């Protein structure tokens, strides 16, 4: 897992965070539902990358449609005031999905 | 915790409505009121004005109710019920039955308002599953 934040000198950029998770299980309907509910609780813009596709994790159907399987890599990204917390929460859910 | 938008599933089949309710609650949350109004009053395939009316009442926690019909007379029966009992916070939505329900329940579980839940259900039409 890795996290980073931008420190652009000329902008007051919103905090950005990112984390990479190797899925312990397929990202099927139930974990997708949990993820979408959790993602909706943050004010930051959140994204999920998998296999060249990017979706908004608040959309449960879009998350399911990624077809992300056990052992594959998902990147969670957030930009906004609560970006760090959003990434930590969502990455935590992905890392413990059953 | 504030009350959740309620969801009513109107289907020609009681089994279909109840089965979808079970799926939606597993993926979404069992804290969202999801009420099935499937079949006729005597359990045959069809729709029931009284079952839909009662389901709306049961799903209502004060945050509004979204009604998802499967097909045909589910739409007509729901419209008749809502025309007879017009309320701004009870509405029918044009959405894929399964996908729209799952999206609506997950969105409602996050505490979203009626407009947001209805939008999530409608958007389900545009999300490819493959």
How would you describe what is shown here?
The complex is a heterodimer of chains A (98) and B (130). Chain A is an alpha+beta fold and 98 residues long. Chain A has helices at residues 29-39, 60-65, 83-95; strands spanning 16-22, 45-50, 53-55, 73-79. Chain A has three helices and four strands; from the N terminus they run βαββαβα. The radius of gyration of chain A is 13 Å and the shape is globular. Chain B contains five helices and four strands; from the N terminus they run βαβαβαβαα. The model of chain B has no long low-confidence stretch (mean pLDDT 96). Chain A: InterPro entries: HPr (IPR050399), HPr-like (IPR000032), HPr-like_sf (IPR035895). Chain A: Keywords: Sugar transport, Transport. Chain A: It holds the Pfam family PTS-HPr.
Which secondary structure elements does this structure contain, and how are they paired or packed?
The complex is a heterodimer of chains A (about 100) and B (about 130).
Chain A: E1 16-22, H1 29-39, E2 45-50, E3 53-55, H2 60-65, E4 73-79, H3 83-95
Antiparallel strand pairs in A: 1-4, 2-3, 2-4
Helix pairs in contact in A: 1-3
Chain B: E1 6-11, H1 14-27, E2 34-38, H2 49-59, E3 65-69, H3 73-84, E4 90-92, H4 97-109, H5 114-123
Helix pairs in contact in B: 1-4, 2-3, 4-5
